[in-house]
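Entry 14. Structure prediction run on the chain below.
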Amino acid sequence: MGASIHWKNHPKRDARLLDWIDKNDRAAQDILSLDKDLQIRKEVAKDPKGFGILVLVHFNSLKANYQKVNKAIGATAARLPFEEIDTESRAYKTLFMMLQRFPMWKRLHVHW
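Output returned:
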């Protein structure tokens, strides 16, 4: 199993994370500054912290969807690299259906 961090009993970690978000408005700027929508680019430039929070909210949404897929395919399959999930298994068939709605799972699974 890979590295893990226990956040629950360490509120200072949360505080440091929020401090980092406050100081690093770059996430929203880096992600949205290349957007084709000129209005979005202007709004991000005016309120980078606000958009930084929106990026974090979206990140949490991705995480929730990722976890939903993992729950559906089961703990054993969720711990395997995608390529190692037996294509004849129920987990793979469930995953295949869920990937139609949440294709980002495969990309996130490399990291999580």
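The chain has a mean pLDDT of 84.
Filed with the rest of this week's runs.
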